[in-house]
Amino acid sequence: MNVATPIPESPVVGHTSVGHTVCPHDCPSACALDVDLTADGRIGRVRGSSDNSYTAGVICAKVARYTERIYHPGRLMVPQRRMGAKGEGLWQEISWEAALDEIADAFVKAEAKHGSEAVWPYFYAGTMGQVQRDSIERLRHAKKYSGFMGTICTNMAWTGYVMGTGALRGPDPREIAKSDCVVIWGTNAVSTQVNVMTHAIKARKQRGAKIVVIDIYDNPTMKQADVKLVLRPGTDAALACAVMHVAFRDGYADRAYMAKYADDPAGLEAHLKSRTPEWASAITGLTVEEIEGFARLVGTTAKSFFRLGYGFSRQRNGTAAMHAALSIATVLGSWQHEGGGAFHNNGEIYRFNKAELMGTAYKDPDIRMLDQSQIGRVLTGDAEALRHRGPVTALLIQNTNPMNIAPEQRLVREGFLRDDLFTAVHEQFMTDTAKVADIVLPATMFLEHDDLYRGGGHQHILLGPKLVEPPATVRTNLFVIEELAKRLGVDGFAGFGMDERTHIDRILTASGWGSYDALKADKWIDAQPDFDTAHYINGFGYPDGKFRFSPDWVNGPSPDRTPDSVGPLGPHAQLPRFPDHVDVIETADAEHPFRLATSPSRSFLNSSFAETKSSVEKEGRPDVMIDPTDAARLGIVDGDIVTLGNSRGKIRLHARLVAGAKPGVLIAEGLWPNDAHLDGEGVNVLTGADPVAPFGGAAVHDNKVWLRREVA
């Protein structure tokens, strides 16, 4: 526990006070925040808490400008009913009672006609608060509505990491500051996880540490690097294999460590004999000298910290790529040292018991599980996506915006526009998904309700208390779930009938983390395991304590394992026995000579913040980054309108000529609202929803496309 100032019950009347809370947005940083509270009950300045050892006083610029979002004139304020055709934009204001009655009535009718699985509660990480995000699962299980496989973010990265370590945890991420070489791989941390850079820069300033950045283009994080490795999309595993080849070849491999802690180092070494820097150079586009130099740097630096990001979850071979990059730390024995090892996510350390919150006691294993990433296929009647059962005819959507962020957008739109589909959306703004709903409900923001958080990218359990009153006509996620439960006759089930603070208290108590009151007094709990546990000194997470160079891709551990009723997905038989480049990506071909990545931008977070004026001004407009040599060959100049296309569709964007990616690679940053694009369709028209091996996922950075200049 930390020593912290208490959280006030409410803003102090008569002068400005400071409240303490947590950023709720979909980011591993889960930043601890200090928020100025004014005498009239509004928020003022928002900043990172300097008392929190991970946040360390730093937050991203978009959250620092949160007053712009919470007091936005376009914020949804009252429930609305669609009046015209879907997407036409004609609405009638209605009461909360009427809105909730209509939603419940639609669900009852859907169930009566097609069974309970016709209703699909659909949500994700628009808030990372445990109560406001996950209470929808309690309603799902109580009513036996269709299950939800959350595949759009973590599956490949988490699976690849845990297949190696046997556990979703790693070294204290604050140890980055104690490293002599920080390898930031597969994450644009300056734009998306700013606190990683806080600790990396500290290591550079205090220890002279080298910062290595590995990514597919010259992004803001790359500009902070001492060593820049720009590789072709989907080729990370080839680089990792070559680095390990050099480690074995040149004596950097810690054979004694591997003999104690790894399953088959001899088999790995034999496998890597042919994975030379020359071999990897041809695949990655890096020079042999770049590969050799990187291998030598980490091979001769005991305290090398590999910070592995979510970019691995955006490629069809991402599971194998994460595992390969992770394996370098085991070959080198980096885990033995403070400031060394490999870290991705600390999800396992919290041990939250959310059975009551989520209603798992009445979960029915026979209810079908539908894939979040395949919502377009589900809503257009794809038999396999529907698990060969009946249609989905009613949706309740919280904390996500599938009409913008889901792949195969033309199918998604077609599905949402079905006349027989009823959609209720609980949102803060009129998003692309809200625009095609039948009922839209206004939602609170994080400063207006209580919730409990945990940091995937660090080690803190944090309380996010209500700091200001919401608008009188706006309601929490929990309120909506509770009110629907009453109307649907399941409010007597265990877990219903409690407020946020009671849920938080019961989760903490059941999980052995104390109580709401104790957390309220302390603001957060440092849950970081001891050094030996975090660094696997007592053995890795498998029963034999061995790291798996050769994992069982189908039967091995994964937090994202598909249920037995679904089984392994994608081309799992092609996953390699040992770390290797797996060519299951959408490789360029004669018809589609370019590879497109839909990378995150600095001022948006998924589809959030795309409504705020300052974020839009900083991002400018939707565009596509093109290498100048490719542009010259095609007669494209900066600012031209170009068309990108593949078998899924085509979109038009403005060209932005940027040196820094490999020729043949296109980058479209940020998820702009669909209507910000020239033809009203966003970049996810071009992304695919085919399941990724072995347990699904959305490979949204893995697309082959053609590119043409628009002729006036």
TrEMBL record:
Domain of life, per lineage: Bacteria
Domain 4Fe-4S Mo/W bis-MGD-type: 16-74
GO-annotated molecular function: iron-sulfur cluster binding; metal ion binding; molybdopterin cofactor binding; oxidoreductase activity
Cross-referenced PROSITE patterns: 4FE4S_MOW_BIS_MGD
Keywords for the protein's UniProt record, in alphabetical order: Iron, Iron-sulfur, Metal-binding
CDD domains xrefs: MopB_3, MopB_CT_3
Family statement: Belongs to the prokaryotic molybdopterin-containing oxidoreductase family.
Protein's recorded name: Anaerobic selenocysteine-containing dehydrogenase
Organism of this sequence: Rhizobium soli
